[in-house]
Recover the amino acids of this structure.
C-alpha cells in the first residue's frame, strides 16, 4: 500500500472514527514512484487508471475525494471501491492524493502516490527555414527517424520575416555579441513551393501537424500550407473563409474538408495552425493559435507515398498536377507520428526560444523622431506597415501630435491576429490641459485594433474621478479630474475587460505603456514603464480584421474617443513578452 500523509482533514468528529488511508492502485503502463525508483512510463495522452479501495477495517465507505497536482480542485467518486481515469497532458511528475469518505460524509486520512509520465515520441520532422541558402534542413529529433530535407523550387526564397524574430541570447541565456535574425519561407501563390523527396508521415496512423503562417492574400482561392500526397492537406478553405484540414487523395473528385475552424482566417498576420489525427479515436482536431477550434471524423488513410509539400497540394483527381499554391510566409513547421495533447499544442503555439523566452517577431515599428508629412513609415520591422495621419494629427519632428478632436493615424488591416499572443508598446504624453476638462467616464484610445463590436484590443486613458489640488496661482483648492491607463478589450457600448494602472496617469509626462496578451494562458498584462500593473483574464478576443488606429477608436468610417497628446513611437510584436526584462530588451532600453 502507498505511504499516507499523517494528517486529518474535514470532520470535527473524533479522529479514530474517521476512515483510514485508502488503498490506491495504479494500473499499467504507469508505476508508482518508490523512495529510490521512479520509472517513467506512458506519455502525454496515455490514460492513467486508479482504483480506490477502503482500508481493511473500514466497512462504511461511501465515496472518495481525490486531487491531482495538475488540477486546481478536488474531485469525488462514489462507491465502496471506485476506479477513475486521468489523461496527462504533458510529461513530468504527478502527485495524487486520495481520501475515503464514510456514510456520514467524514473524510479520512490521505493516501498519496506519485508517478512519472514519460515524454511522448519526439517530432519526426521539423523545418525552421533559417538557412542562408539551399535545402531547408529537417531538424526533427525522434531517434532513428529518417531526415527529410525540403528543396525550395519555382523561385521560392527565404527572407528575414521569421516567426522567431530577433534572437539576442543563446540557449543558456547569455547575450549574443550580435543579434541573430530569424528567417522564413516566402511563397508567391503562383508556382513557388518546397517539398521533401518522400513521405514524412504515415497517414493511416495518428499524426500531428504544426505550422506558423502569414498569408499575404486570402479570398476566393484555396491555399495550402502543408500537404502529403495520399494523406492530408492543411489549407485555407476559401468557401468557408477559414483554415481547414482536408483530404488529399489522387483519385478524389475534390479535396474534401474534414474539419474547419470556426473563426475566419486573417491575412497579413502571423497565425499558428495545428491539426491532430487520432486514429485510435477516429477523430480529427483543428487548432488556431493553440486553441481547439473544431473536431471531426478522421480523414481516412491513403497511400501516403508522396512527398510532403510546403505551399501546394495535388490537384483533385490528379496524381501529377498541383494547385492551391500558398501566397505568403510559412515557418516553424513540425510533424509528429502521434496525437499531441491540447497542452502540447499550446506549447507549440507559445513558441519558446532556446533561451527559455517566448519568441516575438516585430511586425510594426513606427517612430515619429525626425518624421514629417502625412505618413509614418516602418523601416525597421520589414513588414512595410504605414500609418496615415488624418484630421488634426501632425508630425512635429519628434512626436505624433494628436489634438483630441479628430486627429488620428491609421494602418490598413491588423498587424497581429487578436486571437493569438501579441505585445504592443508605445510612448505617450497626455495633454494635461485638455483632459483636465473631461467629465468622469470619458476615454481616449492611445492605440487599438478594430473588431466588429469594439476594439479587439486597445490601450486607452479614462477619467475616473476627481481630486482636490492646490492651485498655485490662486492659492485655493480646486477639483481636477483623475484618470488611469487601461489595456484590454473596449466594447462599442463603452464596457470593457481590462487591466488598470495602479497609479493615476500623470499628464504632460512621457510614459511607456505596454500591453501583453498571452493567448495560451488567456491573460492580459499592462506595464507602465517597466513595472507590471497586474493581470486579468479577458473574454476571448475576436479575430477582428479591422484596421489599427492611433489616437482614437474606429467604427467604419467614423472615429470616437480621440486622445489629446503626443506619441513618440508605436511598436507591435507577434508573441507575448514573458517578462519586464525581455520587454526592456525589445524596446532597446
Amino acid at each position: 500500500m502507498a505511504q499516507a500523509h499523517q494528517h486529518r482533514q474535514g470532520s470535527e468528529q473524533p479522529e479514530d472514527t474517521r476512515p483510514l488511508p485508502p488503498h490506491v492502485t495504479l494500473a499499467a503502463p504507469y508505476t508508482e514512484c518508490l523512495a529510490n525508483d521512479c520509472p517513467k512510463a506512458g506519455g502525454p495522452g496515455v490514460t492513467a487508471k486508479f482504483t480506490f479501495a477502503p482500508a481493511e477495517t473500514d466497512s462504511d465507505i461511501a465515496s472518495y475525494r481525490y486531487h491531482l497536482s495538475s488540477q486546481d480542485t478536488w474531485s469525488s467518486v462514489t462507491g465502496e471501491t471506485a476506479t477513475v481515469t486521468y489523461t496527462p497532458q504533458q510529461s513530468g511528475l504527478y502527485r495524487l492524493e486520495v481520501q475515503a469518505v464514510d456514510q456520514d460524509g467524514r473524510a479520512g486520512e490521505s493516501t498519496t502516490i506519485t508517478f512519472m509520465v514519460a515524454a511522448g515520441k519526439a517530432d519526426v520532422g521539423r523545418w525552421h527555414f533559417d538557412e542562408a541558402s539551399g535545402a531547408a534542413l529537417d531538424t526533427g529529433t525522434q531517434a532513428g527517424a529518417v531526415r527529410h530535407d525540403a528543396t525550395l523550387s519555382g523561385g521560392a526564397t527565404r527572407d528575414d520575416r521569421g516567426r522567431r524574430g530577433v534572437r539576442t541570447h543563446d540557449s543558456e541565456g547569455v547575450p549574443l555579441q550580435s543579434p541573430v535574425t530569424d528567417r522564413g519561407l516566402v511563397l508567391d501563390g503562383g508556382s513557388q513551393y518546397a517539398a521533401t523527396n518522400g513521405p514524412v508521415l504515415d497517414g493511416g496512423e495518428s499524426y500531428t501537424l504544426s505550422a506558423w503562417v502569414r498569408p499575404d492574400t486570402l479570398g476566393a482561392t484555396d491555399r495550402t500550407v502543408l500537404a502529403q500526397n495520399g494523406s492530408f492537406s492543411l489549407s485555407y478553405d476559401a468557401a468557408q473563409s477559414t483554415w481547414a484540414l482536408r483530404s488529399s487523395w489522387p483519385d478524389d473528385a475534390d479535396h474534401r474538408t474534414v474539419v474547419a475552424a470556426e473563426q475566419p482566417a486573417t491575412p497579413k498576420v502571423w497565425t499558428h495552425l495545428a491539426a491532430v489525427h487520432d486514429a485510435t479515436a477516429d477523430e480529427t482536431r483543428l487548432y488556431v493559435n493553440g486553441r481547439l477550434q473544431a473536431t471531426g471524423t478522421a480523414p481516412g488513410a491513403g497511400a501516403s507515398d508522396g512527398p510532403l509539400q510546403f505551399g501546394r497540394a495535388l490537384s483533385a483527381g490528379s496524381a501529377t498536377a498541383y494547385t492551391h499554391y500558398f501566397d505568403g510566409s510559412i515557418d516553424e513547421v513540425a510533424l509528429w507520428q502521434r496525437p499531441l495533447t491540447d497542452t502540447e499544442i499550446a506549447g507549440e503555439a507559445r513558441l519558446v526560444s532556446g533561451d527559455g523566452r517566448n519568441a516575438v517577431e516585430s511586425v510594426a515599428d513606427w517612430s515619429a523622431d525626425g518624421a514629417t508629412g502625412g505618413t509614418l513609415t516602418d523601416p525597421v520591422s520589414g513588414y512595410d506597415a504605414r500609418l496615415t495621419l488624418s484630421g488634426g494629427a501632425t508630425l512635429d519632428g519628434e512626436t505624433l501630435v494628436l489634438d483630441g478632436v479628430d486627429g488620428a493615424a491609421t494602418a490598413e488591416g491588423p498587424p497581429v491576429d487578436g486571437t493569438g499572443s501579441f505585445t504592443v508598446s508605445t510612448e505617450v504624453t497626455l495633454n494635461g490641459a485638455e483632459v483636465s476638462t473631461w467629465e468622469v467616464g470619458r476615454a481616449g484610445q492611445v492605440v487599438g485594433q478594430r473588431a466588429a463590436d469594439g476594439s479587439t484590443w486597445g490601450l486607452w486613458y479614462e477619467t475616473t474621478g476627481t481630486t482636490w489640488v492646490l492651485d498655485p496661482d490662486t492659492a485655493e483648492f480646486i477639483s481636477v479630474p483623475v484618470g488611469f491607463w487601461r489595456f484590454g478589450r473596449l466594447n462599442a457600448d463603452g464596457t470593457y475587460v481590462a487591466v488598470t494602472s495602479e497609479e493615476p496617469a500623470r499628464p504632460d509626462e512621457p510614459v511607456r505603456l505596454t500591453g501583453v496578451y498571452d493567448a495560451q494562458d488567456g491573460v492580459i498584462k499592462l506595464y507602465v514603464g517597466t513595472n507590471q500593473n497586474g493581470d486579468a483574464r479577458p473574454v476571448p478576443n475576436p479575430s477582428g480584421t479591422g484596421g489599427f488606429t492611433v489616437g482614437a477608436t474606429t467604427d467604419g468610417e467614423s472615429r470616437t474617443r480621440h486622445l489629446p497628446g503626443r506619441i513618440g513611437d508605436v511598436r507591435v510584436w507577434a508573441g507575448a513578452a514573458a517578462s519586464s526584462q525581455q520587454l526592456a530588451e525589445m524596446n532597446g532600453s
Notes: Residues 50 and 84 are 5 Å apart (CA to CA).
